[in-house]
Amino acid sequence: MHQPLIRLGFGIVALALLGAPQAVATEPLSASTADAMAQGASPQAIAEYRRKLGEYQAARAEFEEVAGPYWASITEKRRGRNAKRRDRQQITLDDYVLTHPPLYTGPKRPIDPEPQDDGKPRERKAIPVVSDLLQAAAQEFQFTPQRPASEMEFKRAYARYALASGLTREQAVRVYSFETGGTGNYDVQAGIEHGGKRAISTAMGYNQLLTTNSVELMAEQGREFVKELTAKAASLSGPARKAMDHKLAVLKKMVAFTLTVPDDWSAHEKLANTAQGWAVHAMVLDIDVGPMLQTHKLLTSVIFARAKGYNRPLTAAELEMMNLTGDGTGLDMVTMPQAMREQVPTSNFFQRGGYERNPVAIRHNTVAKLLAVTDERMDSNSNKPGAKELAAAF
Fold it and tell me: How many Cα atoms within 13 Å fall on the side-chain side of residue 132?
């Protein structure tokens, strides 16, 4: 069951809260912080902090008097649209909030000169990277994903599977261009690219799957993956057949693991935040299963649109909106006539926290503008080496 999410990746910083696995790393307090705590802040510093804190709290309270009702109206309108869709009633402009949300421009919250110390080391959740995923796969399922001999080998495998499944070259290449900047490899991870040193999310691969995406896709499509690899195994012999049989046995265990909870995003997220969930996410790297996961991340949106009676082919930008925001929210934008797209603010499709942290949606603040900037980025990035290689693979 696909839900909206904030996915910190290469394209737009998207639309509901991302989950990170439950591993922690400890950090000692810095020398300067420790010294400040030991010596204590001066009375003047404390008085200045309290003055600034009062100004901040007053400004936030004034802002909240406007922002609170606005976002409540966004929620109310969304519920109304959902109800009308269930009753197969036409959606009109009146079903959206047509004003843009207020933006906070007051003072920032001041830093407390007397940081609280409970005597415990600070903790931060770790984001798994490729080495962590591979270690989890080895420990939990005694399996190492079969990595491609080259980047082009993976691109060809993805292109073959995507075409056979019903995606077009334009959809696949342009979404890849947006999601990876047109240069990403099959194992590229958000934050670790273009010189980046630290992962900012678990989003990985051509279509930037999160750990929860991998768990959910395995639950919903895993039986089909098993069926397709079983057919492939029948044509193999010798060591290749033995390796495929082992992969199939592992795949079946992973599918069984993902089916231990209801088909619900939050339930899948809990599984994704475990070592076994990390192991499932490692399958994004596998030359056989990886293209399946990448393809179905987009294909489920195409199928969802058709099931809702939308039979016109989705443009790559429209497909990306569904990929980023979740199928239901994305289809809300996709099915909107152009005249409405130019008038409806993007805030109608966000949770408040997601919108206020999203400079792209704030700057390009109507549906038409958001789709246009998505297309522009796809146009630009499609000329980069990785995108050209993927296009050639089709």
Answer: 18
184 close to 204: Cβ distance less than 8 angstroms:
no
Alpha-carbon distances, residue 265 vs 11, 77, 213, 261, 262 (angstroms): 22, 23, 9, 10, 9
pLDDT in tens, the chain (394 residues): 655 444 444 554 433 332 223 333 333 434 444 444 445 678 888 899 999 999 999 999 999 999 999 999 999 999 999 999 889 899 999 999 999 999 999 999 999 887 666 556 556 678 999 999 999 999 999 999 999 999 999 999 999 999 999 999 999 999 999 999 999 999 999 988 767 778 889 999 999 999 999 999 999 999 999 999 999 999 999 999 999 999 999 999 999 999 999 999 999 999 999 999 999 999 999 999 999 999 999 999 999 999 988 889 999 999 998 888 888 888 889 999 999 999 999 999 988 988 898 888 899 999 999 999 999 999 999 999 999 999 999 9
Question: 0.90 cut: is pTM over it?
Answer: no
Give residues with Cβ within 8 angstroms of 6, minimum separation 6. 13, 14, 15, 16, 17, 18, 354, 357
